[in-house]
Amino acid sequence: MPDTTAPTHTDATHTDATHTDAVVIGAGFSGIYMVRQLARLGLDVRAFEAAETVGGTWYWNTYPGARCDCLSMEYSFSFDRELVEAWDWTERYPAQPEILRYLEFAADKLDVRRHFTFSTRVESAVWDDETSLWTVVTDAGEQVTARYVVTAVGCLSTGQTPDFAGLDAFTGETYHTSTWPKEGVDFTGKRVGVIGTGSSGIQVIPLVAEEAEHLTVFQRTPAFSLDCGNRALTEEEKADFKANLEEYRKETRKFPAGLITDILEVNAMDISEEERTAIYEERWQRHRAPDLLMSFPDLFVDRAANETIAEFFRGKIRAAVDDPETAETLTPRTYPLGAKRITLDTDYFATYNRDDVTLVSVKDDPIVGLTPTGLATQDNEYELDAVVFATGFDAVTGPLLGIDIRGREGQTLRDRWADGPTTYLGIGVDGFPNLFMLTGPQSPNVLTNVVVAIEQHVEWTTDLIAHMEKEGVRTTEPTPTAVKEWTSEALALADQTLYPEGDSWYTGANIPGKPRAILSYVGGLHTYTDICDDVAADGYRGFELVR
Ligand code: NA7
After folding, report:
1. Sheet architecture: strand order including 374-377
2. One-character DSSP codes across 242-262
3. Which of 106, 202, 278, 502 has the fewest beta carbons closer than 10 A?
4. 440-459 b/e with 16+ CB inside 10 Å = b?
């Protein structure tokens, strides 16, 4: 049912609206590249970003220890040799400040900043059938009409804080890792609680432990974590990457995760335990998660095979943690390795050998809520001066549904996706013409080196818009059949894997009330790219192009 409180198309064609060809929402990797490509097509482009500068998730997540889980050189734009030549990464795994500097540098070099209005959030985008235009409204009250809207809102940009009782009554400090104060936080002399042991928790915990008087970690589900073995890049590594850029770019797109990986041709279950363990150990030393997770083809389809690598990781926890009981509490046993994202850490498990760190399993002793002076579990009370929420994100769909997007006949995307997202290729939705979602749900998005996925999405979308401009196509939207079929395929493919067995943000299971559905296309970026290319070569099969 159309929501009658919504702006109607009459409201939407505001007389004081300015007009542009395309609006891009977001200034992370995808927004920067999309703006550059649309500008190169000769289109007028306006772009909006809530933050005061570019960076996206790397602008906001400034908590101590924030670091990417992809290698720096892999996690960077590869489409422009000049840009690659002009930038030198310092570390194997880049820390947040360096990634932010990189994105600032890229935005300047690609000359996209002038298209952006910063410190401005897009509140709504409403389609008008009569004019075939979107009206985009910002929190500053600006209205812009545009033929195209491209969302570049990222997959992990809407933080979630659990609705604990007593949150407002707590008199101490509270922080969320995804909106960390830019001036930093000093925990010296303080009793600190960290809730959450996903990637953010695992990165922040060792550093808070070093500073705080006492740290209490509230863990609901333990993580499989890989020692990231971070180090400075050598001059040889940097030179090698630059020299082989074109080959790297071509190769990387042939792999499921957009990362060159040597997947063995034998199944884990077809070799002896000794052989397997030797392979895992050698790959552990490479300090690169895909090398482990993709060692054998059966690891993510066969639970018994998965158990072999899970047990290898568990052994690493036992070796790192002195107290066997604490080690056991830190040991994941309830889900397959990889069904929740593998975390990359520095000294995470060893942190629990400190006298000033306490681990609380809130699976066994659930959180009841915050009190004025701390946190209460069912059986205990913890006095705290500060609480850090490392409780994650409303991933992939959260940032899109945070904008009031209304397509034909006032239909909202929120209503449309009430039972879970439905898309064609993760890019478009029927009834929402000329709306293109970069790294949208049911595209490979977070199951890849996302920068490679972004480049593929931006380039494909640019080609489609260029085609529309050239052929005089006024509107493009997927057919209902294409959406139905793609959605079924995406869901069915996920059912053949172990992803549904993990309660994680990959499936929306981390957000109470969120429909549980895989938020990514699990068939691999290589397969997905072929499908997209084939769709384009076939005259954009599955899209209705109206002149
Ligand atoms: P994650 O991976 O979603 O981790 C959130 C953590 O917070 C996880 O351990 C959750 O436990 C825990 N959590 C969430 N809600 C609660 C409540 N209500 N009570 C106790 N514990 C809770 O988010 P991150 O920010 O760490 O990482 C997200 C991605 O960002 C990461 O994978 C990288 O790709 C970058 P749970 O596991 O749900 O039991």
Report:
1. 367-371, 374-377, 381-383
2. HHTHHHHHHHHTTSTTSS---
3. 278
4. bbbbbbbbbbbbbbbbbbbb
Mean pLDDT of 304-313: 98
Q: Are residues 35 and 47 in contact, defined by beta-carbon separation less than 8 angstroms?
A: yes
Decide whether any atom of ligand 1 lies within 6 Å of the 217 Cβ. Answer: no
Mutate to test the pocket of ligand 1, among 217, 333, 391 (most ligand atoms within 8 A of CB): 391
Region 459-483: what's the mean pLDDT? 98
Q: Which of 393, 402, 378 has its CA nearest to residue 446? A: 393
Average pLDDT score over residue span 433-437 = 98
Which atom of ligand 1 lies closest to the CA of 341?
A: 32
Q: CATH 3.50.50.60 spans which residues of the chain?
A: 18-158+395-546, 161-223+345-392
Closest CA to 217 of 322, 330, 62: 330
Which residues sit opposite 159 in a β-bridge? Answer: 393
In this prediction, residues 76-96 reach a mean pLDDT of 97
**Ligand 1 center to 444 CA (angstroms):** 21
Measuring CA to CA, how many Å separate 210 from each of 148, 303, 348, 497, 506? 49, 38, 12, 39, 31
From the CB of 197, is ligand 1 less than 6 Å away? yes
Query: pLDDT tens digit string along 19-46?
Result: 999 999 999 999 999 999 999 999 999 9
Q: Nearest residue CA, atom 2 of ligand 1?
A: 198
In terms of Cα–Cα distance, which of 174, 191, 171, 188 is closest to 383? 191
Bridge-based pairing state of the strands 143-151 and 133-138: antiparallel
Q: Please name the residues in contact with 509: beta carbons below 8 A apart, sequence gap of 6 or more.
A: 502, 503, 516
Q: Are 25 and 32 in contact (CB under 8 A)?
A: no
Helix axes 273-284, 303-320, angle to 10 degrees: 60
- Residue pLDDT, tens place only, 267-300: 999 999 999 999 999 999 999 999 999 999 999 8
| Whole-number average pLDDT of the chain | 95
**Contact by Cβ (8 Å): 417, 514:** no
Q: Whose CA is nearest to atom 15 of ligand 1?
A: 391
Q: Is the pTM higher than 0.85? A: yes
Query: What is the CATH topology of the domain spanning 161-223+345-392?
Result: FAD/NAD(P)-binding domain (3.50.50)
| N-to-C CA span, the chain | 28
Instruction: Give Cα 193 to chain centroid, integer Å.
Output: 25
For ligand 1, say whether the CB of 196 is within 6 Å of any of its atoms: yes
CATH architecture for residues 18-158+395-546: 3-Layer(bba) Sandwich (3.50)
- Cα 208 from Cα 388, distance rounded (Å): 10
Please indicate whether residue 220, judged by its CB atom, sits closer than 6 Å to ligand 1. Answer: yes
Candidates 428, 545, 427, 466; CA nearest to 43 is 466
Q: Is the CB of 505 under 6 A from ligand 1?
A: yes
